[in-house]
Amino acid sequence: MGLSILGLAWRSLMNRRGSALLTILAVALSVSLFLGVDKVRNGARAGFENTISGTDLIVGAPTGQINLLLYSVFRLGSATAEISWDTYQSIADRDDVAWTVPISLGDSHRGFRVVGTNDSYFEHYRHGDGTKLRLAEGKLFTDIYEAVLGADVARELGYEVGSEVVLTHGLGAGGLTDHENRPFVVSGILAPTGTPVDRSIHVSLEGITAIHVGWESGTRSPFADTISEEMIRGFDLTPKSVTAVFVGLERRGTLLRTQRALNTQSGEPLLAIIPGMALGELWQVTGIVERALIAVSVFVIAVGLVSVLTSILTSLNERRREMAILRATGARPGHIFFLMVAEAALLGLLGAVAGVLLVQIGLLVAGPLLSSAYGIGIGGLGLSAIDGWTVLAVFAAATLIGTIPAVMALRRSLADGLTVKL
Amino acid sequence: MPVIDIRDLRFAWDDGPALLDIAEYSVLPGERVFLRGPSGSGKSTLLGLIAGVLEPQAGKVEVLGHDMTQLSGPKRDALRADRLGVIFQMFNLVPYLSLVQNVTLPCRFSSARRKAAGGGDGMTREAERLLSRLGLSDPKMLERPVTELSVGQQQRVAVARALIGGPDIVIADEPTSALDAEARDRFIELLNEEAARSGSALLFVSHDGSLAGHFDRSVDLKEINRAKGGV
User: E strands along A325-398, which residues?
Assistant: First the structure.
């Protein structure tokens, strides 16, 4: 019997398919907004969390721990101070430290960040589940004027092994601050990683020092052009400072102790951060915005559900006759009630399922763009438990809301009896 | 034993004056009865009371041996679903159901009616048989949306619906007021014939006294209703 009432509800909706479709669309759009926000949020988090793994500590000049994490790992923002080479050496020489990766930031090439580092970067930097960087073609830099490009840099700028790259001082678009007298040659190109490494240009620390000869004041000195390449190669190109250091420990058990030791050591003040904890702090900050977005999209779902209510309520008047016919042919009040609730529930269910499909189609289309433009991995964006729970919740809420028109229809049909004066 | 037996019935809408005050009124099994009354005289209300969708303030309405005033709401609903057929003045059909689905509608709410009509496929065949008896056998017509039928055709579908599963009582509330004279007479003949065939008692209500000749017995509501509340 329940099934045959469900059949009535379905036919009744089909009879008003125009307005039913609009209502389903309203619910679908609201659900897809909610799920879209959630998926992009998770994708962004997963993207960030996959960017660095295996590094126990990141050390830099004192700043906020989020700031240090952002500029050292994500190439976002810039460092305000550096740490001296001697201090770097003292960190590298510690007994509890297994390996270090020094990085020197501050230059760029057509919008892509330049990272000065050494071979240990390619040995110890890990992403995702501990994946090492891999060369797609060419070899690592061996000369001070050689560069290894991230996958996106090579693809977007059309560079190949052997191409010449002119670096720019600072992060501007280039021009007056170009290091055009010291071009670099591409020695290798890395395989794509889905991390900011793809958008970085890697050169040796010595290369960074070399292009800054004559730039000690921060701008090009008149003498800079008079210094020949041979002269530079004759100089001691050991860097005077680095921007940050990735640190791997001998034993993870000493993590907190080592961190405290670095943070409180005498001499040059340092900030040592644990990447996971800094990310946690970052999520706390972004969490406020995320919660606001989620709250807004939940309200939008509520609006979608109100449209279900509206569509059924507006149909009630023209359906009084129908209710009287159903009553006369034997429908009990419970049947009328169930019919109305079933209509609301069907609208909610179809809307929610359509919303889930809408998001999946949207991700199929826009996913690659999200991934390349914002580093948001598509991996975590597929169907997940939250989709099922959302469908269930919207279905339940629509069913609950359906009781309002159901009670109204019930009261009216009881009062009308068998006659409706229209 | 009468299928409908009314004693000392009193009914008023809310706190208004009594609309119905009937000392005695009854219909025998298989009897075809005409009840005359102008509009607003309370005849539709009387039918609502007999069908068990309204409750009187006082008195007794016995339908098929059950005192409707003593039955619970669900029991009254079940009795109506199982053993009563109802035909309205117009707009008898559910717009989103097909002709046959409209006819088998009572079988959705009553397993007794469903069984009596042959259940499942038998139910559909019974609906088609009834429709064809009432002159609605063209397969093309059976597939058209019910809203495209003429009023006369819609009323005949309503007769088929009221009769499916052979109910004990068929109640018709002004079913011919939207029909022209010729269609009206043919409709009443068909209704009488089919009610007789299924052995149902027929209570036919109308303001038009000229129809009385079609029935076994005719009563004027004015004669049995002592209330002055009616118009």
Answer: none
